[in-house]
Specification:
The protein is an alpha/beta fold. It contains 10 helices and 10 strands. The strands form 2 sheets. A 7-stranded mixed beta sheet has the order 6-2-1-7-8-10-9. A 3-stranded antiparallel beta sheet has the order 3-5-4. β4 and β5 form a beta hairpin.
């Protein structure tokens, strides 16, 4: 068995770092090397493998094992209504502007993508908000994607422990959740509006005409070339007048993208204006 003293040596780290980057665009540097180290060690213990080399051979020969490894090394930190000003901007600025555009085309569906949705709190927050604010006659669809299958399964179940629903306003909690033993279940009317999907941001999602994309605190794991690939894919999947939310500590400043910076009274975001 692998002893606790064994960690990834420099050559191992380089191999895993490159493979993870090639497969997902996620970057591990010297700074976050300990995270990768501890997660690989955990996997080796779980799989009762003796060497890092054996595990590397396994992930490079088995696509499902590769997916499981990517799942294990990605970080999933999320909560309902995380960074409230973003949702205020969505409600008070973005959706009114999206509806103005829709009136011109006669399109009655608002399309949102929560990219890097983790365990589903973000897409359900968006769905509850849209359910509440959209005028009669309008519908919406939220696509929620992640590279972590484990996280997607939590989102798909729609069940959250008591401590996970902190931050949900009481009126939302009573209207859109049902209390059950040990937690809360998202109601069917909201669950039916959110479609969970495994997706690697390195690849084209195939989606088009999206009105809003949330991709918050995901691109921090990518280096700039990988970020640009993702941003270009976002651009191509969005409607000609649409909006992008990224993490409040993230910025596209100095990057070669077509997105325009947009400062609202509630939060800063980015917009696509024209094709």
């Amino acid at each position: 068995m692998l002893s606790m003293l064994d960690t990834l040596n420099d050559a191992d780290f380089e191999r895993f770092r490159k493979t993870i980057y090639d497969e997902s665009g996620i970057t591990f540097s010297a700074t976050n090397r300990p995270i990768l180290d501890s997660r690989i060690k955990e996997i080796l213990r779980e799989k009762k493998l003796d060497s890092v080399d054996d595990y590397y051979k396994l992930i490079t020969s088995d696509h499902e094992e590769m997916k499981r490894m990517l799942d294990a090394v990605t970080t999933n930190l999320t909560r309902f209504f995380r960074n409230q000003p973003h949702f205020d901007a969505l409600e008070k600025y973005v959706i009114p502007h999206v509806l103005e555009e829709k009136k011109k085309t006669g399109d009655k569906t608002v399309r949102v993508w929560s990219a890097g949705c983790s365990t589903g709190e973000e897409p359900y927050t968006i769905a509850m908000l849209l359910k509440r604010i959209l005028p009669v006659g309008y519908d919406f669809q939220v696509t929620a994607s992640d590279i972590s299958l484990k996280s997607l399964m939590v989102g798909q179940s729609g069940f959250y422990a008591d401590n996970k629903v902190d931050g949900i306003p009481p009126d939302y909690l009573s209207q859109y959740f049902t209390k059950s033993a040990g937690g809360y279940q998202v109601n069917k009317e909201i669950m039916s509006k959110v479609k969970f999907d495994y997706h690697n941001l390195k690849n084209d999602s195939g989606m088009r005409n999206l009105d809003v994309i949330f991709c918050r605190n995901v691109m921090i794991y990518f280096d700039e070339p990988a970020q640009l690939v993702v941003l270009n894919r976002f651009w191509n999947s969005m409607a000609s007048h649409s909006y992008l939310f990224i993490g409040h500590s993230e910025s596209l400043f100095g990057m070669d993208t077509k997105f325009e910076f947009l400062k609202t009274d509630w939060a800063c975001l980015y917009q696509k204006n024209g094709n």
